[in-house]
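Researcher: Please translate sequence to structure tokens.
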Amino acid sequence: MTEDLTLISLNHRKIKNYLRRFSSTIGDENNLRRLLLRLFYYDIYGTPISIIKKEDEIKWDDFPKLFKLVKREDIIDIYNKDVKSCFYKELKILGEDELDTYKINPNNSLKISLKTFRPVYKTDWKKLSEEVNNISFDKQKSYYAIYLKLYLKYRYFPSFEEFIRYIFYKYQTPIHRDIKIIFDNIENSYKDVKEFIKINDMNYKTVKDIIIKSTKISNRINIENN
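Model: Translation complete:
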């Protein structure tokens, strides 16, 4: 019994040291948290999505060998209690009813204004969003806004992998289970905009100015109507 407790203590110490070693910077810790959540959820390009993974479905070759020494719940407990993140709140394992699992329909693009590079404004846009996704607006994320924010950040429209990594970085929870459909819908919506930018030989500053000027809804309406 004493030997078992000693072994458990030793294993916990090994896990704790590993977690501390790979959480020294915000970038390292973000990657560590992605890794830890992959013990509980499936992933795309290493980013956890809202599909729960049973313990017997874990591919242990994708994780450090020492993770097999303790239960996966214990690893999260060690991280939350002993690492004490300087950058993030406690890492939570969400249940099915807390995850982004509402259905996203493919080929459901929005009309994008060539004057604002944003979805054409409609006064009842929140209600329409609820009808399309069959879920209250406050439980949805503004994926189109994130897409534009990443254009401003990167100076180009983001790839799928850049898109999902940023969403995880921002929210620190598994991303929507239909995130690939979401991204494809946005990409299809922006085809004409990208072509418009290319044909008119518009540089980053010009595109940036258009996006920023149309941030406020009142400005967006005025720009669209003129």
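Researcher: Any highlights?
Model: The chain has two domains: 2-96, 125-225.
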